[in-house]
Design goal:
This protein has a single domain, classed as Rossmann fold (3-Layer(aba) Sandwich), CATH 3.40.50. The longest helix has 19 residues. A hairpin with a 2-residue loop joins strand 1 and strand 2. The protein starts with a strand and ends with a helix. It has 8 helices and 10 strands. By secondary structure, it is α/β, with parallel strands linked by helices. A 6-stranded mixed β-sheet has the order 3-10-9-4-8-5. The protein is 42% helix and 22% strand.
């Protein structure tokens, strides 16, 4: 596996080198028969949204699913505890597999892979309400699903190719602070919550890195992203 670098910085951190060439060949063959499912995972604020937005600007024959919409309904629990932060303090683990409707996500992705349309849920961050069957999604040649739960069992077994973004810790923290400011949190509150999500990542997210076909740095530059993935996928079309 060739490591892609710029100056002294490595962007591709690891890959299943013995299997990668075969994996791309299988993707090309699969795309001629059914939709190809690609997972993008990584810690919170690791760069998943930036990565996904770059893909959206360039790729046309794709759909993109935000797996955060499969978060369980927490509206009653948030009301009981007074806030989401208080719910976390009570011992609730937001990044645990049990916090996601993994069976629903599995069923929806399986239907899309079989060229059937689905109605996916919509999770409202403000209030923690999950609206079932909210948004219609029709199959496309390539289906990208992005979120921390995409490499959890049993969902991970559905994907044809799996990408893990490894967070640059300094940049991750800056992103998290910026988001916290948008949510009206103080820097102290944000720092406390960042420690919480970092602990959750160590427990639940980082171990899933071993499921990925390729691990890349979260701040992968656009031109490197294009070189790594876009050209390959275009060749499959």
């Amino acid at each position: 596996m060739t490591l892609y670098t710029h100056s002294d910085e490595t962007f591709v951190l690891s890959a299943h080198s013995s299997l990668l060439q075969k994996a791309f060949l299988n993707l090309k063959q699969t795309a001629q028969k059914r939709p190809v499912l690609i997972a993008i995972s990584g810690e919170s604020a690791s760069g998943k949204t930036t990565f996904l937005n770059t893909l959206k600007r360039i790729l046309k024959s794709c759909i993109f699913i935000d797996a955060d919409n499969y978060f369980i309904d927490l509206s009653e629990q948030i009301k009981t505890h007074g806030s989401f932060c208080n719910l976390l303090k009570s011992g609730f683990e937001s990044d645990a597999p049990s916090s996601f409707m993994l069976d629903t996500l599995y069923d929806d992705l399986a239907k899309l892979r079989s060229n059937r349309s689905v109605y996916i849920p919509k999770y409202q961050m403000n209030g923690g309400c999950s609206i079932p069957h909210n948004t219609k999604v029709s199959p496309a040649p390539f289906i990208f699903t992005c979120g921390i739960c995409t490499l959890y069992k049993p969902v991970v077994d559905l994907f044809d190719f799996k990408i893990y973004l490894q967070a640059d810790k300094n940049l991750q923290y800056k992103r998290y602070l910026a988001r916290a400011h948008e949510r009206g949190q103080t820097e102290t509150q944000a720092a406390h919550q960042f420690k919480y999500i970092s602990d959750m990542a160590q427990k639940y997210i980082i171990p899933t890195k071993q499921e990925a076909d390729i691990v890349v740095k979260g701040r992968l530059p656009n031109h490197t992203l294009k070189r790594l993935f876009i050209d390959t996928i275009r060749q499959m079309g």
